[in-house]
Design goal:
- The complex is a heterotrimer.
- Chain A has six helices and nine strands; from the N terminus they run H-E-E-E-H-H-E-H-E-H-E-E-E-E-H.
- Chain A has one domain: Glutaredoxin, CATH 3.40.30.10.
- A seven-stranded mixed beta sheet of chain A has the order 2-1-5-4-3-8-9, with helices on both faces. A two-stranded antiparallel ribbon of chain A has the order 6-7.
- By secondary structure, chain A is of the alpha+beta class.
- In chain A, strand 1 and strand 2 form a beta hairpin.
- By secondary structure, chain B is an alpha/beta fold.
- In chain B, a hairpin with a 2-residue loop joins strand 2 and strand 3.
- Chain C is of the alpha+beta class.
- Chain C is built from six helices and seven strands, in the order H-E-E-E-E-H-H-H-H-E-H-E-E.
- In chain C, strand 5, helix 6 and strand 6 form a beta-alpha-beta unit.
- Chain C has one domain: paralog of FGE (formylglycine-generating enzyme).
- The chains are: A alpha+beta, B alpha/beta, C alpha+beta.
- Chains in contact: A-B, A-C, B-C.
- Chains B and C meet through strand 2 of B and helix 5 and helix 6 of C.
């Protein structure tokens, strides 16, 4: 199981382009999607909960053993590489593919087990159609398998204060220097 | 095991297999190997980025004339376009740069290439590109999958020199290739190629249409024929008359010509030949070493070759796939027109045209008649003589002469021969088994060698001897086939004894 | 002045009373069932189970879409959020709200996945899911599953052999298939709800890796029925398109779950 998920991540690295929306597109912002989510405390939030700050956003699901920790480790590695001032301002948003199993309670447990600082990180529950739209907006592919597991790509995006996607990376397991430089940029 | 690992293992296996072979056989040229990709990284790009000059077939961009690695920007657009494939026949080609084959790309080993693949918004299909000169997943295909109206960018370093095919690798790959999505990229060796007078770009491909060869109208791609490898057209540069008539390649006598020749496939291997010319130099498989003095060279599907030759004699030279029905029945023909002064000392053209009747059997009818008559038991002496004359003139007269006079002191005469007259039957044995050693005829001694003439059958020997006995003042008589048979059977001869 | 006002009124009325109203049922019921898909649900599971659903008989037309943007200005091309559509969005229309008479009855193209989804939702419907679309499209005029019929396949492949530059037929113009659905072949590519689930490698030659079973979710990566190129090409096209992309060859229709609620 964990091996398979590790494979998925490697495939993600292979299969997906690293793109940032180019300047030619109209100013796109993730916050143009208005989605009602629930955070790990069961509190209703909007997708733009961290508007005004730079955000690392990606998607995951709780019941896979390998990917979840690896994504969290990668996000932590990016945080560590950021300049201290930027790190304090940086926020992290993780949306689950799996609303059925990753209820707010389950998300809270993950946060506790992984010692996640929920003052700066949010683990979010979204209903299936919201999951679909958020994944589409972030360019993340995912597919629910008959056994309830998810096959998915992983892309970590940096949002600017207005929600614009400034940089994306499919790198897992290390802090992509391109992401770090965008975070550190003024 | 990840796909990545498998790919790496496969590549390693191929690499190792290649290494093993290299150890067993020495390279064709005396130079040591170029070191491949391990020695192909000349460091980071220097100077300002360069925009690559692409060329449409049959033209080739000029040499890069670079001496240091550069950043090269390549912009290639995919266009789906309906064009003639043969006279009165149109086909929807999917193209790189609007042509089949696609634009020729020329860079230098060690260059860093920033590749922009654009998919024209008017296209129906997504496309990508795999360049065989790229070291990296899919040769770029994994990083260039592009929807219509969009473009993808990826960067690679050209670590290996050589002439490489590029092609689209979107599912179904065979269909994209069969529709014309291939071209060549030349990665020059660091020292560049030796200057020549002209360079040409030719690429062979096989095409599969629902309709028959030259069936008029718009033709669709036939997947089943492609799977069966049953090509409808085999063409140079994507159309029957792409390189013929007014579009023929042109050169002059006294020129050193280089051709970059690729084979996009999708299926067929090319037996590439230039009628009337010899390839002085063939960089087989588009690699580094070369063979010399080659008539026909193989180009694998998805492969390429660089050929060089010198023109001496004016005329039309025909490029063909020497799997010859492809040339004459499926269109695999292109023309190189060479103009200039004639060189009769090298090739004269036709110098004479005369009647030629074979010495042998100038009138085979007589032999036929005798054979039939003999079979039906009605053979007459006249028939024997007539048949014998034809046979004698075809073979025996070479030594004994038409006049039967022989050659003095060399070959004995048969005319008025006392030797012959003394014993007719002995003559049968001489014709069957030959004669060596001294023999006296009409007072002169001859000591020569007559080889056995056992290749003649019994009828023929009987007829020849009958003719001889009744010619030039000999005393007549006849020899029957049965007599020859009896003597032949009684003679011990070694295996395979014949003329 | 009066004639002009009357004229405008007439035009207004025409806009309202024009092509079939949304209230009329544009779809047919398809029972679904077990279906062997080109895209297996899991590495060891080739059969997809499709619940009964209703599928629009014809593609959504430019006129249909114009009616939608008139009531939903946030989906007009001069106002649409950059996240939801790229510069190509509705570029073929003569204005932000009018497609123009020449293409009015043709299927709407140059629409993004977000826009197509929003349209269907405005009708209380959704985009069809890939399995639903594939099942409906497997039918010929006379057979429920014509995928092994070489003539049917060649007819579909013929569409790929034509240029995309010609004019599109009006919606509903192609013959109805076994289910009564039109325009599934030979017209345009179509968006599906789970276009983000194709999970196909950008390099199509990675398909069919023999170690499939070791890969999580590789069922989505390995396309079965390699001879079913027509479907493979549809999946290739869908997987090349991001949700905000639009294309002159990509249109859509809507579907709903069958049952008590629509």
């Amino acid at each position: 199981m964990s091996l398979r998920n590790r494979i998925v991540l490697v495939l993600a690295v292979l299969a997906l382009p690293l793109t940032a929306p180019h300047a030619g597109e109209r100013a796109a912002s993730l916050y143009q999607l208005h989605e009602r989510l629930l955070n790990q405390d069961g509190k209703p939030i909007d997708l733009d909960v961290y508007r005004g700050r730079k955000v690392l956003v990606t998607m995951f699901y709780g019941s896979c053993q390998a990917t979840c920790p690896l994504i969290i480790d990668t996000l932590r590695a990016i945080e560590r590489k950021a300049d201290p001032l930027q790190r304090d301002e940086l926020r992290v948003l993780l949306v689950s593919f799996d609303p059925e199993r990753d209820t707010p309670g389950a998300l809270r447990e993950i946060a506790a087990t992984r010692h996640i600082d929920t003052t700066r990180w949010t683990l979010a529950h979204a209903d299936p159609s919201a999951v679909r739209r958020i994944a589409a907006a972030l360019g993340i592919q995912y597919r629910k398998l008959p056994d309830g597991q998810f096959s998915h790509s992983t892309i970590i995006s940096v949002l600017d204060a207005g929600g614009g996607i400034t940089r994306q990376s499919a790198d897992i397991g290390r802090a992509d220097p391109e992401l770090v430089s965008v975070i550190n940029a003024k | 095991m990840t796909k990545n690992t498998i790919a790496v293992l496969l590549m390693a296996a191929m690499f190792l297999a290649g290494c093993g072979t290299a150890e067993k056989t020495p390279p064709a040229s005396s130079a040591a190997d170029t070191g491949g990709s391990r020695k192909g990284d000349f460091g980071p790009p220097q100077g300002e980025p360069v925009h690559a000059v692409l060329a449409s077939p049959p033209n080739v961009p000029p040499p890069t004339n670079r001496h240091a690695p550069a950043k090269v920007i390549v912009e290639l657009e995919v266009i789906e376009v309906e064009k003639p494939i043969a006279e009165g026949v149109t086909y929807t080609f999917w193209t790189f740069g609007g042509t089949v084959p696609g634009s020729f790309i020329r860079v230098r080993q060690g260059d860093t290439v920033e590749f922009h693949l654009k998919n024209h918004p008017g296209n129906k299909m997504p496309h990508n590109i795999d360049l065989h000169g790229v070291t990296g997943p899919g040769g770029g295909a994994a990083s260039s999958f592009t929807a219509p109206g969009h473009q993808s960018t990826f960067t690679f370093k050209a670590l290996n020199q050589g002439l490489y095919v590029y092609h689209c690798a979107t599912a179904p790959v065979g269909m994209h290739v069969a529709n014309g999505m291939y071209g060549l990229i030349l990665i020059e060796p660091p020292e560049g190629l030796t200057p020549v007078d002209q360079e040409f770009y030719v690429m062979q491909g096989d095409f599969y249409t629902v309709g028959k060869y030259r069936e008029k109208g718009h033709q669709a791609f036939d997947m089943q024929k492609a799977i069966d490898e049953n090509a409808t057209y085999v063409l140079f540069n994507g159309a029957e008359s792409a390189l013929t008539g007014p579009r023929a390649l042109k050169a002059k006598t006294g020129q050193h010509i280089r051709m970059f020749v690729g084979n996009g496939g999708p299926n067929l291997i090319s037996s590439f030949h230039l009628i009337g010319e010899i390839f002085d130099k063939v960089q087989y498989e588009g690699g580094t070493h070369f063979q010399e003095n080659v008539q026909t060279t193989l180009i694998p599907a998805g492969g390429a070759v660089t050929v060089e030759f010198n023109t001496e004699v004016p005329g039309n030279y025909v490029l063909v796939d020497h799997a010859i029905f492809r040339a004459f029945n499926k269109g695999a023909v292109a023309i190189l027109e060479v103009s200039g002064d004639p060189r009769p000392e090298i090739y004269s053209g036709k110098q004479g045209d005369e009647v030629y009747l074979s010495d042998k059997l100038s009138n085979p009818a007589a032999v036929e008649t005798a054979a039939l008559a003999s079979a039906s038991g009605t053979l007459t002496k006249e028939q024997q003589v007539k048949a014998g004359e034809v046979l004698f003139k075809g073979t025996c007269s070479a030594c004994h002469q038409d006049t039967g006079a022989g050659i003095p002191n060399v070959f004995p005469p048969l005319a008025k021969s006392d030797f012959l007259a003394a014993n007719h039957k002995r003559a049968i044995g001489i014709v069957l088994n030959g004669l060596t050693g001294p023999v006296s005829v009409n007072g002169t001694t001859y000591n020569s060698v007559m080889p056995p003439m056992s290749q003649f059958n019994d009828d023929e020997i009987a007829n020849i001897l009958t003719y001889v006995l009744n010619s030039w003042g000999n005393d007549g008589g006849a020899v029957t086939s049965a007599e020859v048979t009896a003597q032949r059977a009684a003679t011990k001869r070694t295996e395979g004894a014949a003329h | 002045m009066a004639p002009l006002i009357s004229l405008l009124a007439l035009v207004g009325l025409a806009g309202v009373a024009g092509p079939p109203a949304q209230a009329a049922d544009p779809g047919v019921l398809i029972a679904g069932g077990r279906f062997e898909s080109v895209l297996p649900p899991a590495p060891d599971e080739k059969i997809a189970v499709v619940a009964p659903f209703r599928l629009d008989v014809a593609l959504v037309s430019n006129t249909d879409f114009a009616r939608f943007v008139r009531t939903r200005p946030e989906w007009r091309r001069n106002q649409v959020a950059g996240l939801f559509a790229d510069e190509g969005y509705l570029r073929q229309w003569s204005s932000d709200t009018e497609p123009g008479t020449a293409i009015a009855r043709q299927p709407v193209t140059y629409v993004s996945w977000f826009a197509a989804s929003a349209y269907c939702e405005s009708r209380g419907a959704r985009l069809p899911r890939w399995y639903e679309w594939e099942l409906a499209a497997a039918a010929s005029a006379t057979s429920r599953d014509a995928r092994r019929d070489p003539a049917w396949r060649q007819q579909i492949l013929d569409w790929y052999s034509t240029s995309a530059r010609g004019a599109l037929p009006v919606t509903g113009a192609t013959p109805a298939n076994y289910y009564g659905v039109r325009d599934l072949h030979g017209v345009v590519w179509e968006w599906v709800e789970d276009a983000g689930s194709m999970l196909v490698s950008d390099d199509s030659r990675e398909q069919g890796d023999p170690n499939r079973n070791r890969f999580c979710g590789s069922g989505a990566l390995s396309l079965e029925q390699k001879e079913n190129y027509a479907m493979m090409m549809r999946i290739a096209m869908l997987s090349s398109m991001k949700a905000a992309y639009s294309s002159g060859s990509m249109g859509f229709r809507c579907a709903t779950d069958a049952g008590l609620h629509r």
